[in-house]
Write a sequence for this structure.
């Protein structure tokens, strides 16, 4: 089969098209012909940092985690999937798990689900990592109907999905943006936009919550922005974050009695720990999409497997709006 291979890691790493052996099916797996895969920030981190990250595959490596495709073979002990099923998941590109930038992948059935019937392969491939991340953060923060939820970065990969899930759960959703184009996008998802460049945290907390703060804040920005999240959260409120790799002052969090939920959705893949939870969440994501309550936001640029290097560069440029997806 064809695969895009990285021989050496680094910011200038190049993807090369090579013929490699098709992966051998094991028990508990299905062989999937990949139609599309998406690029996530963690993928670019692996490409650039390589062995500095404990979960990077050994080079030469096939990267990529998210995919959508069609099952061509099933393992002897697999009963819940059949040949011809269209599926999606986040199942490769870490440790000894072959990535998705290839014609085929053998996927652990615990990490996949049947793709949403009303979404294309490209749309479905954009969802697994960000969808699981958004869902886990919101459910751990116990989002309830009628609560006020603030999502930072509403047109980002995780952010645009978190908005839609929070709306689906019945919350009143607000999100930070930085342009009129982004404002129009988040309004289409039913969120009220806050331009963080022109409004301070204090100003938008006073404006939208009468100074009380938001019940739940979802922060996929991290770093210093976590301090803004603590400032924006109500007393005894909930903060979910995907980026806590920083040293920051927790004083505000302490005096407001906040709960912090750190979401690192790669744990089941890296440690083979409760992988079935990912499959269960993906089933719920498919149901939400099929109800019409979830529409993926795809970047306007199109990429093929052969020019995946440009797809990675697009995401790293910071100019992408929504998910960058590669089509086979």
């Amino acid at each position: 089969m064809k695969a895009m291979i990285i021989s050496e890691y680094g910011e200038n790493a190049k993807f090369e098209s090579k013929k490699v052996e098709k992966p051998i099916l094991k028990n508990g797996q299905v062989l999937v012909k990949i139609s599309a895969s998406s690029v996530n920030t963690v993928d670019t981190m692996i490409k650039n940092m390589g062995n500095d990250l404990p979960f990077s595959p050994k080079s030469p490596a096939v990267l990529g985690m998210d995919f959508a495709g069609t099952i061509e073979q099933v393992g002897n002990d697999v009963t819940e999937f059949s040949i011809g099923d269209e599926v999606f998941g986040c199942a490769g590109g870490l440790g000894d798990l072959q990535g998705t930038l290839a014609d085929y992948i053998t996927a652990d059935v615990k990490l996949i689900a049947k793709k949403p019937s009303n979404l294309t392969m490209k749309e479905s491939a954009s969802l697994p990592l960000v969808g699981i991340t958004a869902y886990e953060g919101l459910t751990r923060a116990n989002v309830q109907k009628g609560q006020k939820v603030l999502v930072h970065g509403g047109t980002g990969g995780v952010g645009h999905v978190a908005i839609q899930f929070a709306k689906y759960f019945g919350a009143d959703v607000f999100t930070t943006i930085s342009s009129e184009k982004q404002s129009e996008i988040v309004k289409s998802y039913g969120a009220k936009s806050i331009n963080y460049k022109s409004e301070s945290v204090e100003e938008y907390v006073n404006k939208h919550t009468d100074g009380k703060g938001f019940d739940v804040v979802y922060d996929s920005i991290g770093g210093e922005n976590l301090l803004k999240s603590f400032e924006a959260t109500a007393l005894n409120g909930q903060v979910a974050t995907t980026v806590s790799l920083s040293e920051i002052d927790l004083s505000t969090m302490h005096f407001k009695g906040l709960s912090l939920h750190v979401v690192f959705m790669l744990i089941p893949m890296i440690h083979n720990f409760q992988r079935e939870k990912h499959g269960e969440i993906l089933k719920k994501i498919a149901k939400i999409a099929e109800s019409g309550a979830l529409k993926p936001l795809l970047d306007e640029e199109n990429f093929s497997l052969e020019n995946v290097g440009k797809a990675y560069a697009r995401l790293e440029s910071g100019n992408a709006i929504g998910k960058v997806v590669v089509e086979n």
Remarks:
- The radius of gyration is 20 Å.
- The mean pLDDT is 97.
- The longest helix spans residues 276-290.
- The longest strand covers residues 29-39.
